[in-house]
Amino acid sequence: MLRSAWSGSDLTRLRKAVPEGGRSSVRVRVEGESMLPVLSPGDWLWVRRGARIRQGDLVVARLPDDPSLLIVKRAAWPEDGGWWLESDNQRAHGRRDSWDFGPVPVVGRVVLRYRPLSSRPFFFRAR
Question: What integer pLDDT is reported at residue 40 of this predicted model?
Answer without folding.
Answer: 93
